[in-house]
């Protein structure tokens, strides 16, 4: 642990000092490769953190993705993965075949709808659609996603024309802090795709795997029932 803290102290400003990066953006990378040797991780940590700083600083609208050349004179092989996100083809080059889809969506593609909650597929904040089925992106490695179609919260609707579930959540004000809202909406959309007219118990069961720490479950359930009637 001490060697990792030393990296943070030495390269901290360069990597994320003025980029506003959060826990899930930097230390979250540790989760994906925690089983690797220390030497491999030291290289990965430096490259990925510097990459995140460049990506956030440049902005997702410019199409900035992961580094194509390794910094600090290091030669690192970066495999590329092709898949679809919200109906459009994308290609990303990343370090580590086990890097979770969530990190690529947020850091490389600038899609921040899915949230890092637990990193263990327990809270549902990171839920996306993988081949039209709800899935926890924090535990899906990129090597599995290659060639597939992924849909995020941003792909359901727009601020001008929200999806029926998004509109129902707005109408019922079914959010407090909003951190769980992505997972709740994606889980609700998945439920309604399979069961267009669910009962109250079916809605509760369909959302049982998603956690809301603010306790707004009543309004969330009401929003799903409203969407079912639309």
Which helices and strands, and how do they pair?
Layout (H helix, E strand, L loop, with lengths): L1 H16 L5 H4 L1 H5 L5 H21 L21 E6 L2 E6 L7 H8 L18 E4 L2 E4 L5 H4 L3 E3 L12 H8 L9 H14 L5 H7 L10 H13 L1
Parallel strand pairs: 1-5
Antiparallel strand pairs: 1-2, 3-4, 3-5
Helix pairs in contact: 1-4, 7-10, 8-10
Give an overview in words.
43% of the residues lie in helices and 10% in strands. The protein has helices at residues 2-17, 23-26, 28-32, 38-58, 101-108, 142-145, 164-171, 181-194, 200-206, 217-229, and strands spanning 80-85, 88-93, 127-130, 133-136, 149-151. It folds into 2 domains: 2-74 and 83-155, Roll (Ubiquitin-like (UB roll)); 164-229, [2Fe-2S]-binding domain (DNA polymerase, domain 1, Orthogonal Bundle), CATH 1.10.150. Strands 2-1-5-3-4 form a 5-stranded mixed sheet, with helices on both faces.
Give me a quick take on this structure:
With 230 residues, the protein is an alpha+beta fold. The protein contains ten helices and five strands; from the N terminus they run ααααββαββαβαααα.
Instruction: State the name of the first-level CATH class of the largest domain.
Output: Alpha Beta
Strand order of the largest sheet: 2-1-5-3-4
Counting DSSP E segments of at least 2 residues, the number of strands comes to 5
Proportion of residues in helical segments: 40-55%
Rough shape?
elongated
- The H/E string reads HHHHEEHEEHEHHHH
Spans of at least 5 consecutive residues with low confidence: 1-72
User: Main β-sheet, in a few words?
Assistant: 5 strands, mixed
Question: How many helical elements?
Answer: 10
How much beta, percentage-wise?
Answer: 5-15%
The CATH superfamily label of the largest domain reads: Beta-grasp domain
**Within the CATH hierarchy, at the fold level, what is the topology of the largest domain?**
Ubiquitin-like (UB roll)
């Amino acid at each position: 642990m001490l060697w990792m803290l030393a990296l943070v102290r030495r390269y901290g400003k360069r990597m994320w000092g003025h980029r506003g990066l959060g826990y899930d953006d930097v230390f979250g990378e540790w989760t994906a490769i925690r089983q690797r040797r220390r030497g491999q991780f030291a290289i990965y940590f430096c490259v990925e953190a510097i990459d995140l700083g460049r990506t956030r600083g440049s902005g997702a609208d410019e199409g900035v993705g992961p580094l194509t050349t390794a910094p600090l004179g290091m030669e690192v092989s970066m495999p590329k993965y092709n898949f679809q996100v919200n109906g459009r083809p994308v290609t990303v080059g990343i370090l580590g075949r086990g890097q979770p889809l969530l990190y690529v969506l947020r850091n490389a593609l600038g899609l921040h709808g899915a949230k890092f909650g637990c990193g263990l597929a327990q809270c549902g904040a990171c839920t996306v659609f993988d081949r039209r089925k709800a899935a926890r992106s924090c535990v899906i490695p990129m090597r599995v996603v290659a060639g597939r179609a992924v849909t995020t919260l941003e792909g359901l609707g727009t601020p001008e024309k929200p999806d029926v579930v998004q509109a129902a959540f707005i109408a019922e004000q079914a959010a407090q802090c909003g951190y769980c809202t992505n997972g709740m909406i994606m889980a609700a959309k998945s439920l309604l795709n399979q069961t267009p007219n669910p009962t109250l118990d079916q809605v509760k069961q369909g959302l049982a795997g998603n956690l809301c720490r603010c306790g707004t479950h009543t309004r969330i359930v009401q929003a799903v029932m409203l969407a079912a009637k639309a």
